[in-house]
Design goal:
By secondary structure, the chain is an alpha/beta fold. Helix content is 42%, strand content 21%. It is built from 18 helices and 21 strands. A five-stranded mixed beta sheet has the order 2-4-5-7-6, sandwiched between helices. Strands 10-9-11-12-13 form a five-stranded parallel beta sheet. A hairpin with a 2-residue loop joins strand 4 and strand 5. Helix 2 packs across helix 5 and helix 15 packs parallel to helix 16. The protein starts with a helix and ends with a strand.
């Protein structure tokens, strides 16, 4: 091959990458719009009085939507990585929530393979608000956990999250995904994070990957200031990285969660990672843990305020289990079980059923229900209570909501109503938004969809800004962050949110913008 031919091929490759990126960006917009509706409507249904089974199914819809969103983001990043246009944000987020979402995304896949999927989370990080990019962290963890589930046939997968040190408001947080999978051969270990490099394997039925997941993961970790470390052998692999995440200065550090002093909590479960993680989590919260590997008669002679029993142990000793149930109230006895095991779903409800994976927020709920926590504000409260302490009287503000999708408008209207923003003017395109703006001088904030017929959100915003108005305008878009930045449109808006937008993000955004000086008829007062 001559040098001229080589240059021609490289240009073709660059053209292909650019074309691929454009196609994926177009697909992204088309997928994000209905995905926003699915996630938004699911969120609205969560507040309705529905059965526990329905609530669990709703949770699966949310997690499946999150997984689809991550797949979409990774595909776009893979196309754009060659152009070095990846980015990270710096925004307050709850690291515990991100880690739990990553675990939930692969829970059923792991359970179908009879794998234990665990999260061992440092109790010092519970409920802490840190500064970083939650979407990128979720992308990293979902790639690593997804790979671990894919290449592990037996045993367990554990995500470790450990606070190494807190220095000057900077939290040094260690993340590690450990599995008992087939491992990575030495010849691939140095190259496994390169573009399109995949490990050859002989296991049947496994779909071929793209060879881009670890490539993107390594790049994103570096963008966040960390470095991916990989250790592997025939008995499993470890993927780890360290991130320095500042504490959110606007969010007071929550009081340490801990169990009531001198409280003994009993765990009756077969030896293994699940019981070890549960005992670690309880010990991290200051509980004295009494551990039994099997059911024994002596357990009936001394009652504890809270007892956890795994399903295989309860099933192996039905008589003792039946007697144990008579000693406890429902809030004092928790059965650890699998949702894929039909027997678990058919058990009599004389106890709480805790379905795997066993996550810190759920453990806190059981401890809280039993009255065993100090320094705790319930994390199981309805969403509207989460922001009950806002200084704003939300009912006083008039918002203009603009979206051409009737379904997305229902989601947006429902989310605003739930937050208490009950005075909403609606428009289905940019021209209607401009007309409403000119007619209604009492509008306090505009939520503007960007891609619409007749007149798009950018054109409408340019007209409103051209009239001298400084009214807060939030752009809502299914475009990716880099497309907004590249288009030079971000400066038009006070903030741009990428769909799907969670109710929590919407609340924080609108509250923050309305907490500033009030804008009336283009003047700041």
């Amino acid at each position: 091959m001559t040098s001229t031919q080589l240059a021609g091929n490289l240009n073709d490759d660059e053209y292909d990458l650019h074309s691929q990126a454009n196609v994926l960006a177009s697909i992204s917009h088309e997928v994000r719009t209905p995905l926003h509706a699915i996630m938004g409507l699911s969120s609205l249904i969560e507040d309705e009085p529905i059965s526990q089974n329905a609530r669990r199914h709703l949770e699966k819809i949310r997690i499946a939507s999150e997984a689809l969103l991550q797949t979409l983001n990774t595909s776009i990043d893979a196309a754009r990585a060659g152009h070095d246009t990846l980015f990270v944000e710096q925004t307050p987020f709850d690291v515990q929530k991100v880690c739990e979402t990553a675990i939930r995304m692969f829970a059923l896949n792991a359970e179908a393979k009879n794998l234990d999927l665990n999260l061992n989370f440092d109790s010092r990080l519970l409920s802490q608000s840190l500064i970083g990019d939650p979407n990128r962290l979720l992308q990293i963890l979902s790639n690593l956990i997804g790979n671990a589930v894919k290449f592990t046939e037996r045993g367990q997968i554990t995500l470790w999250v450990v606070l190494r040190r807190n220095k000057g408001g900077i939290q040094e947080v260690y993340f590690s995904v450990n599995d008992t999978g087939i491992g990575i051969p030495d010849k691939y270990l140095e190259r496994i994070t390169e573009r399109y490099v995949q490990v050859e394997h002989n296991q049947k039925g496994r779909p071929q990957g793209s060879g881009l997941g670890l490539y993107i993961t390594k790049k994103v970790i570096r963008l966040m200031g960390g470095e991916l470390s990989i250790k592997s052998s025939s008995s499993g692999s470890q993927f780890s990285f360290l991130l320095n995440l500042p504490t959110d200065p606007k969010q007071p550090i929550p009081r340490d969660l801990r169990c009531v002093d001198n409280m003994v909590i009993r765990v009756i479960a077969k030896p293994g990672v699940v019981s070890e993680v549960l005992r670690d989590q309880l010990a991290g919260l200051g509980a004295h843990v009494e551990y039994y590997e099997a059911m024994k008669e002596e357990l009936l002679t001394q009652r504890r305020e809270l007892t956890f029993v795994d399903y295989p142990t309860a099933k192996s000793s039905p008589k003792l289990w039946a007697q144990l149930k008579t000693l406890y109230t429902k809030d004092q006895l928790v059965l650890l079980c699998s949702e894929l095991a039909e027997e678990c779903l058919q058990l009599e409800k004389y106890h709480n059923s805790w379905f795997s994976p066993y996550l810190p927020s759920e453990l806190i709920t059981y401890l809280d229900s039993a009255g065993l926590l100090i320094g705790h504000q319930s994390r199981t409260a309805k969403f509207e209570n989460t922001f009950a302490n806002t200084p704003l009287d939300r009912s006083e503000y008039t918002l203009l909501a603009v979206d051409d999708s009737p379904t997305n408008m229902i989601v947006l209207q429902g989310a605003l109503d739930k937050l208490g923003y009950t005075k909403t003017v609606k428009a289905s395109n940019g021209q209607q938004a401009v007309d409403h703006f000119h007619k209604n001088q009492n509008i306090d904030l505009i939520l503007m969809d960007i891609n619409m017929p007749v007149m798009n959100g950018i054109e409408a915003t340019q007209i409103i800004r051209g009239a001298g108005s400084k009214i807060p305008i939030v752009g809502l878009t299914a475009l990716s962050e880099d497309e907004i930045t590249e288009g030079g449109h971000r400066a038009l808006f006070d903030l741009v949110l990428t769909k799907p937008v969670s109710s929590e993000v919407l609340a924080k955004t609108v509250d923050a913008l309305l907490s500033g000086p009030k804008v009336i008829a283009g003047e700041v007062q």
